[in-house]
């Protein structure tokens, strides 16, 4: 694949309400994941690893957290003089005023079309961030080129029992062609089916065709999301269906976010996601080594740098710059960057957001399927401040 | 673009006293403290002191150092007007520009320095662990109206025998210089840090290399020449943490000190960060069988064994049943199962096979070289 022949659109306009309060101040795409990453690192790294140099990021709101993370795009090798990273904020139509909507009616996709025209790419891949994967986009492009349908979709074969109502699945023909993308709760599944083709929300098509689709949407004057447009395109045109077989996690609510973090504590998953030939890139930070004090215990867990660990940690994902004081017990938890845990505090089945301060001798416990969530920047010093989750 | 003060880091030394560790790499590129190389301290001091144009003079085995420094972006030294430049010997009509001593190294790079028209030249060595504000030293240099200011650190009488010692008057003006004196008269040891008025030094060097070529080394030749010609030479006293890590013993010792949360170096100070080449690696993974106490560990380490009072660098893996005590393991080393490593420095990408033992003592630190294999049966 020639460099520059494919461009990418990473769409951060994704459903976020079920992930609150984690998504109160950030789009789903900048949710921290796996000790040092953000969800959008995965599609961006896939693009970088396939030699894609033109990347557009559509942010729902101001994109402050997105820009803080991406900066010039340099950490993904996207600051090249050939191509680069293009950021477009304020794409969430739910947040647009009625007056603004009127002016957007025939212009919503102007920026995306301009990006695509200037990219001079032959193909474009459209991706979201809530399906964590490490996909080979070169293989996807080859697959597309070898087949006749104008659009290629990606699926993962999963157990139908693990489907959530808001997932979408691909309806496949016997020859492996996708004829529709349908919501899981409306899909008619055979009772005998052992697997189902879970849609990963990745679409590859020729850039000219995508410009046509966007132009048509602008002309009709219906404000419709890019994700919706892609699903319609599959329905109207039939699609090739590419099976992805690597590590996959879907993040659609707090429980699935928590489960996805716990899943990478499994060594096989961890290696599949992070130690394949396709590296995952993220914003580079300059942290000191993590210090494990005398008397600490840190087991079956991941940890970022810059940490100071005195307590006991088991089966948890600990991000960068976390301080865990002595005699504390952390189990089955996700603790994000900059958070401090007081001495003697017990935490279990919990997601603690960034820069939280938890005082000493508290008990914070959620349920394995319903973790306790502490919002970003919270300071908790009294047991009564922690609402029991059951 | 004119820089008031240009930094030059002398990174060409072989560092023979580091034995195996500098067989294929220059001393300033030797790893330190889990995620640093020795030169990071000097480069970060430059960046934090506002010395934005820095030349790094290399000669011996420069590849790893070049790769590490890159375009200087990791230290924020990638400014469009200056930044960091790696200076390699090259050939010209005047002959090849290899160098013999510290002052000769500056002479061979006069053209680079002249490009930046500095008023002051800051000369540093790339092989010390410390945090120092060179801007404060420059302010002192200006206040003293000095031609040369030498950074000095207090040492004991015993240590003084290994250093260049500065004897000063009550105004801190240097009146005498003694190289490795048997009976030291002062406690002020040269740190190998100099601020020169560049035009003056330039004259001295140009004249010397047009005639007797005597000014080869700063300590041995230039400082005595300045004193003979009655130039104003001052000592600038540094009180902070400073370690020369030129020997296996001192490198190990400084790493062990680095482990202490009470180390005076204060590596965690956000106002004077030590930067290093940024690498994106997955977080460290400690398994259910790991036992980690009093240890520093960084990204992409995999630990299934026991780590006690030791430092693991990036991409180190330690198998189940292994025990690492009082040691520093450099990046990429693979340590098998049931291995014992005690009082050791283990080089980059070394392989320690299952059941092997690498054991040193406080007086005699064990060293495993880069890419060296220990205890694995060769096919």
Strand content of chain B: 25-35%
Globular, elongated, flat, extended or rod-shaped: what is the shape of chain A? globular
User: Total strand count of chain A, please?
Assistant: 27
> Measured on Cα atoms, how large is the radius of gyration of chain B?
22 Å
Proper CATH architecture of the largest domain in chain A: Alpha-Beta Complex
Q: What does the main sheet of chain B amount to? A: 8 strands, parallel
What low-confidence regions of chain A span 5 or more consecutive residues with pLDDT below 50? Answer: none
Care to describe what's here?
The complex is a heterodimer of chains A (390) and B (379). Chain A is an alpha/beta fold and 390 residues long. Chain A folds into two domains: 6-274, Spore Coat Polysaccharide Biosynthesis Protein SpsA, Chain A (Alpha-Beta Complex), CATH 3.90.550.10; 291-388, Hexapeptide repeat proteins (UDP N-Acetylglucosamine Acyltransferase, domain 1, 3 Solenoid), CATH 2.160.10. Chain A contains nine helices and 27 strands. In chain A, the strands form five sheets. Chain A has a nine-stranded mixed sheet, sandwiched between helices. In chain A, β4, α2 (64-70) and β5 (84-88) form a beta-alpha-beta unit. In chain A, α4 runs antiparallel to α6. The radius of gyration of chain A is 22 Å and the shape is globular. Chain B is an alpha/beta fold. Chain B is 21% helix and 30% strand. Chain B contains nine helices and 29 strands. In chain B, the strands form seven sheets. In chain B, strands 17, 19, 21, 22, 24, 25, 27 and 28 form an eight-stranded parallel sheet that branches. Chain B has a seven-stranded mixed sheet with strand order 5-4-1-8-13-10-14, with helices on both faces. The radius of gyration of chain B is 22 Å and the shape is globular. Classes of the chains: A alpha/beta (390), B alpha/beta (379). Chain A binds chain B through residues 34-36, 74-75, 267, 270, 274-275, 279-282, 284-286, 288-305, 308, and chain B through 33-35, 73-74, 259, 261, 267-268, 273-276, 278-280, 282-299, 307, 311. β14 (290-292) of chain A pairs antiparallel with β17 of chain B.
């Amino acid at each position: 694949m020639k460099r520059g022949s494919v461009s990418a659109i990473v769409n951060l306009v994704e459903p976020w309400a079920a992930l609150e309060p984690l998504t109160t101040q950030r789009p789903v795409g900048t949710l921290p994941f796996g000790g040092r990453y953000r969800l959008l690192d995965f599609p961006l790294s896939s693009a970088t690893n396939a030699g894609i140099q033109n990347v557009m990021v559509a942010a729902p709101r101001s994109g402050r957290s997105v820009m803080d993370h991406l900066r010039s795009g340099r950490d993904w090798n996207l600051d090249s003089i050939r191509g680069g990273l293009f950021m477009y904020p304020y794409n969430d139509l739910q947040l647009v005023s009625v007056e603004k909507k009127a002016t957007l009616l025939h212009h919503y996709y102007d920026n995306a079309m301009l990006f695509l025209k200037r990219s001079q790419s032959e193909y474009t891949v459209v991706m979201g961030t809530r399906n964590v994967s490490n996909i080979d986009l070169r293989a996807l492009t080859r697959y597309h080129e070898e087949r006749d349908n104008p659009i290629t979709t990606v699926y993962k074969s999963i157990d139908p029992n693990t489907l959530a109502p808001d997932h979408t699945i691909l309806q496949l023909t016997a020859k492996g062609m996708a004829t529709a993308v349908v919501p899981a709760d409306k899909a008619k599944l055979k009772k005998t089916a052992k697997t189902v083709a879970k849609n990963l929300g990745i679409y590859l098509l020729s850039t000219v065709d995508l410009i046509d689709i966007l132009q048509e949407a602008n002309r009709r004057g219906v404000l419709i999301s890019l994700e919706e447009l892609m699903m319609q395109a599959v329905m109207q045109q039939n699609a090739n269906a590419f099976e992805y077989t690597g590590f996959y996690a879907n993040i659609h609510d707090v429980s699935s976010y928590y489960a996805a973090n716990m899943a990478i504590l499994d060594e096989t998953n961890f290696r599949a996601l992070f130690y394949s030939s396709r590296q995952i890139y993220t914003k580079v930070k300059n942290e000191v080594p993590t210090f494990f004090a005398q008397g600490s215990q840190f087991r079956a867990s991941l940890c970022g740098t810059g940490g100071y660990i005195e307590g006991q940690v088991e089966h948890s994902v600990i991000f960068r710059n976390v301080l865990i004081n002595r005699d504390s017990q952390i189990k089955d938890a996700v603790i994000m960057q900059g958070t401090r845990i007081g001495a003697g505090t017990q935490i279990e089945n919990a997601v603690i957001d960034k820069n939280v301060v938890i005082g000493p001798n508290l008990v914070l416990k959620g349920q394995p399927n319903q973790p306790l969530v502490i919002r970003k920047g919270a300071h908790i010093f009294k047991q009564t401040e922690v609402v029991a989750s059951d | 673009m004119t820089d008031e003060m240009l930094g030059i880091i002398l990174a060409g030394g072989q560092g023979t006293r580091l034995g195996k560790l500098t067989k294929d790499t220059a001393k300033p590129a030797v790893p330190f403290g889990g995620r640093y190389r020795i030169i990071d301290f000097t480069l970060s001091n430059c960046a934090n002191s506002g010395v934005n144009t820095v030349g790094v003079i290399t000669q011996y085995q420069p590849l790893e150092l070049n790769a590490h420094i890159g375009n200087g972006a990791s230290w924020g030294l990638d400014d469009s007007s200056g930044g960091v430049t790696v200076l390699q010997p090259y050939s010209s009509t005047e002959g090849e520009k290899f160098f013999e001593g510290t002052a000769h190294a500056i002479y061979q790079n006069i053209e680079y320095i002249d490009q930046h028209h500095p008023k002051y030249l800051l000369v540093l060595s790339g092989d010390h662990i410390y945090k120092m504000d060179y801007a404060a030293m420059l302010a002192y240099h200006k206040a003293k109206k000095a031609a040369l200011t030498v950074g000095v650190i207090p040492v004991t009488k015993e240590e003084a025998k290994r250093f260049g010692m500065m004897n000063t008057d009550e105004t801190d003006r240097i009146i005498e210089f003694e190289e490795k004196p048997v009976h030291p008269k002062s406690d002020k040891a040269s740190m190998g840090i100099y601020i020169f008025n560049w035009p003056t030094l330039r004259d001295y060097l140009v004249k010397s290399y047009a005639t007797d070529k005597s000014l080869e080394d700063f300590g041995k030749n230039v400082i005595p020449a300045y004193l003979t010609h009655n130039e104003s030479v001052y000592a600038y006293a540094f009180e902070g943490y400073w370690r020369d890590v030129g020997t296996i013993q001192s490198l190990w010792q400084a790493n062990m000190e680095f482990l202490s949360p009470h180390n005076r170096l204060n590596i965690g100070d956000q106002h004077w960060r030590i930067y290093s080449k940024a690498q994106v690696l997955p977080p460290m993974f400690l398994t259910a069988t790991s036992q980690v106490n009093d240890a520093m560990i960084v990204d992409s380490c995999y630990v299934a064994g026991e780590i006690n009072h030791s430092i693991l660098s990036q991409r180190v893996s330690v198998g189940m049943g292994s025990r690492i005590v009082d040691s520093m393991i450099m990046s990429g080393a693979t340590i098998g199962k049931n291995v014992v490593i005690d009082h050791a420095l283990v080089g980059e990408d070394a392989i320690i096979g299952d059941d092997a033992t690498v054991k040193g003592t406080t007086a005699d630190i064990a060293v495993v070289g880069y890419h060296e294999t220990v205890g694995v049966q060769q096919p």
